[in-house]
Specification:
By secondary structure, this protein is an alpha/beta fold. The protein folds into two domains: 178 residues, Rossmann fold; 143 residues, N-(1-d-carboxylethyl)-l-norvaline Dehydrogenase, domain 2 (Orthogonal Bundle). 47% of the residues lie in helices and 11% in strands. The protein has 15 helices and eight strands. The chain has an eight-stranded mixed β-sheet with strand order 3-2-1-4-5-6-7-8, sandwiched between helices. Strand 4, helix 4 and strand 5 form a beta-alpha-beta unit. Helix 8 runs parallel beside helix 11, helix 9 packs antiparallel against helix 10 and helix 14 packs antiparallel against helix 15. The chain is globular and about 60 Å long. The C terminus is likely disordered.
Length: 348
Amino acid sequence: MKSGAGAVAVIGTTDWGTTLGIMLSRKGMEVRLWARTEEEAERLNREKENTRRLPGFPFPEGLRATASLGEALAKASLVVLAVPSQDMRRNARQVGEHLNSAMLILSAAKGLELDSAKRMSQVIPEEIDSRFHHNICVLSGPNLSKEIARGLPATTVVAGRDSAVAARVQKIMASPLLRVYVNADVVGVELGGVLKNIIALAAGMVDGLGYGDNTKAGLITRGLAEITRLGVAAGAAPLTFAGLAGLGDLVATCSSPLSRNRFVGQELAKGRSLKEITVSMTGIAEGVTTTVAALKLAGELKVEMPIAEQVYRVLYEGIDVRQGLAELMGRELKHEFTDLRGSAVERT
C-alpha cells in the first residue's frame, strides 16, 4: 500500500462494488471486499477475480475479500455500500455495529426501497447511530461498471449535506481516470440515478421494437422532464438534473448495451417474460422495483409520471409494449415547457 493511502471497505460483491474495489486498489489503497459467506470470500481470493459478477478483471495486489465484517471495517476510513437497494437496510444495520466517527459512509446504490419509497440516504440513517449521520454521502453519475473496470475515463458525483465530508470522499474516490465532482443536492443526485433506470427500461423497449433514434431521443428528453418533476417535488434542485447524475447518467444508461435496465426493456419488447429475463441475469435491474416505488412516491407528491406508468403496466400488468407507447403518444396535447408545478411557461 502506498504511503498515506487510506483503507476502504466495500460492502457487496456486486459488479459495481467489485469495480469500485478494483479502482481504489489501483490507486494503492488497501481494500477489503466483504462477501456474504466464507465460501465466496475464499473463491474470490483464490481466483483473484470476481468471475461470477465481473469476469476478466483481475484483483490488484491491495484488494482482498473477507467474510468477516469486523475485519473488512477494522482499518477503513471509507465504507462503500454497494449492495442492491432492497438489501441496503439489512446491510446498513450490520455495518452500523462496526462504525466509528472517523469512518466516511458512501452509498453507491441506485434504487428506492420498495415498501417505503425511501432513498438510500434516508434508509441508512435509520439503521446506524445518529453520531454518524453527517458522514453519509451518495455516489451517482454515468458510471457503467465494466467501462470503469477497463480503465476508461469517466466522471461521477459525490453528494453530501456536509460539504467537508463530501470533499473528503471526493479526494478518496478521484483518480486520473475518474473525475469526481461534489454537489450539496443529495436528493437530486440520488433521484437522478434512481429514476433514470425507469426511462432506460423504456429506452430498451424502443430499441427492441426498432423504432429509431427520433423515438428514443424524444423518450430520453421527456423522461428527463419526468425525472425533474418528481425530483423537484421531493426537494431537489432543478439544475442537478442537467448534470452528471441527471442527464449524464440518463444518456449512458439509455444508450449502452452494458445497461441491465435497457437490456430488460429490449427483451420485453421481443416478447420474453419479465421472470424469464431476470432469472437469466447475473445482476439486478434496479428499475424493475424502482418503477413501483417511484410511482408510490409520485402519488404521495401528486406528480404525473406517464412514462413510468406505462413501464409499470408492461412490467406488472402484461400489456404489450406497442400498446404502452401508443397510449403515451395519444395523451392530451399540451405546451412543451410545462413548469415543475404543472402550469405552462409562456414565452415573453
